[in-house]
Design goal:
Blueprint lengths: L8 E3 L8 H7 L10 H17 L4 E6 L2 H12 L5 E6 L2 H12 L3 E6 L8 H10 L5 E7 L1 E2 L4 E2 L2 H11 L4 E5 L18 E5 L10 E6 L1 H9 L10 H4 L14 H17 L1 H22 L6 E2 L11 E5 L4 H13 L1 E5 L14 E5 L6 H18 L7 H12 L1
Parallel strand pairs: 1-13, 3-4, 3-5, 5-8, 8-9
Antiparallel strand pairs: 2-10, 6-7, 9-10, 11-12, 12-14, 13-14
Helix pairs in contact: 1-9, 2-9, 5-6, 10-12, 10-13, 11-12, 12-13
The chain binds pyridoxal-5'-phosphate.
Pyridoxal-5'-phosphate binds next to α3.
Length: 399
């Protein structure tokens, strides 16, 4: 029988759970896009997004998903034939590099595998060897959603400074903004890209590029820039219509306004603390379960794990069976092991991910973990008992 009727928990790492308040605020007739409330609302959205990114720099909004803002960021700072260096820790860093290659930008990938963060010593060595400063930008992810590796962005800036390399630092915070601590200005990040569909709790469809004056100077000479992706007309437009290079994403803006209000009401620090505790609860469960049997967190060192998503190695082909069981029998949808093995290969079934980003609280995460526990019993994944108790102890200790 199925026990799945009731409210579903979409525990994939984006799109994330959309709060009812966000959905309700989008349920309205189309607003005027030339004058009135919508126009008055956007400057506040821009300043609140900058507060979440902790920057006083510039920001352009695009009607686009994450791939769109990857392209936007690249086209504004790079010319065909320029070199960018991409320290890669999973599928999404590789994805940004491939987009650069597709634009005619020479992306050099330094691959650190699927389970480790960036080796800063190796990166420093590579940058120091670039005496002619051929590398125009170092670009990577803060959190790679495929592997759940979290990279140390402040350390990346420290490496660039120690070597005295002028490359721009470009960071993808699509999975991490509003979930993991990020400080654009303090950490000397020149360009940051984010989307609305994860920590910002809004349906997919809007992307953001944050940039500083240094990056904007690179825009002066970039020959990849095209009219739609050009960030300049979007920053301080003469006409509201030009904010979005055309028709505004009307309902998304209402949803995002509400999501930002919710973040402000809880307080950004409290939002980040909540994500930290819930992530530790998830890790505690899997660490306990993994004491017997093959189950393992993908990232061994807790200091390098995301607070938004956790990637799990099942150690057998039962990962897919588990996902299918918890979805069909219990109303819990887990993420596929994206980028960990080729689709269709037997190893494809060896992984799953759990998203714990955005509008997520303790009962949802504890419920998801207990459901995964039930699924493991049902499909026969060997594990030590006590995972949910270990997670509950983390929650109890923090609350
Ligand atoms: C870190 C990261 N970068 C980029 C992307 C691509 O975003 P999208 O799927 O919205 O194009 C994702 C999507 O999950 C992501 O997690």
């Amino acid at each position: 029988m199925s026990l799945g009727n009731g409210r579903q928990y979409l525990a994939i790492p984006g799109p994330s759970v959309i709060p009812d308040r966000v959905l309700a605020s989008m349920h309205r007739p189309s607003p005027n896009i030339y004058s009135g409330e919508l126009i008055d609302m956007v400057p506040g959205i821009v300043s609140d997004l900058k507060a979440v990114a902790r920057t006083s720099g510039h920001m352009a909004i695009y009607i686009a998903n994450g791939h769109g803002v990857w392209e936007a960021a690249l086209t504004n700072v790079a010319s065909r034939g320029d070199k960018v260096l991409v320290p890669a820790t999973g599928m999404f860093s590789h994805g940004w590099a491939e987009m650069a290659l597709g634009l005619g930008i020479d992306a050099e990938i330094m691959d650190f595998g699927q389970r480790n963060t960036i080796d800063m010593a190796r990166l420093a060595e590579r940058l120091a060897a670039d005496k002619s400063h051929e590398i125009k930008a170092v670009m990577t992810v803060q959190v790679d959603t495929s592997t759940s590796v979290r990279n140390d962005v402040a350390a990346l800036r420290a490496v660039l400074d120690a070597v005295g390399h002028p490359a721009l630092l470009m960071i993808d915070c699509i999975a991490s903004l509003g979930c993991d601590d990020f400080r654009m200005d303090d950490w000397g990040v020149d360009v940051m890209v984010a989307g609305c569909q994860k920590g910002l709790m809004t349906p997919p469809g809007m992307g953001f590029v944050f940039f500083n004056d240094r990056a904007d100077r690179a825009r002066d000479v970039a020959n990849c820039v095209t009219p739609y992706w050009d960030w300049r007309p979007r920053v301080e437009p003469d006409l509201f219509y030009h904010y979005f290079c055309g028709t505004a994403p009307t309902h998304h803006l209402y949803g995002l306004r509400t999501a930002l209000d919710m973040i402000a009401q809880e307080g950004l620090e409290a939002v980040l603390r909540r994500h930290g505790v819930l992530a530790r609860a998830v890790w505690a469960a899997f660490e306990r379960w993994g004491e017997a049997g093959p189950l393992e967190l993908n990232v061994a060192d807790a200091a390098h794990r995301s607070h938004a998503v956790t990637s799990v190695r099942v150690g057998s082909a039962k990962g897919t069976e588990l996902r299918e069981w918890v979805e069909a029998r219990a109303g819990l949808t887990l993420g596929i092991g994206l980028g960990m093995a080729p689709p269709g290969s037997p190893e494809w079934n060896h992984f799953f991910r759990i998203g714990h980003m955005g509008h997520v609280n303790a009962q949802m995460v504890l419920g998801a973990l207990a459901t995964i526990g039930a699924g493991m019993i049902a499909v026969g994944i060997e594990h030590a008992r006590g995972g949910v108790d270990a997670a509950a102890a983390v929650v109890a200790g923090a609350a």
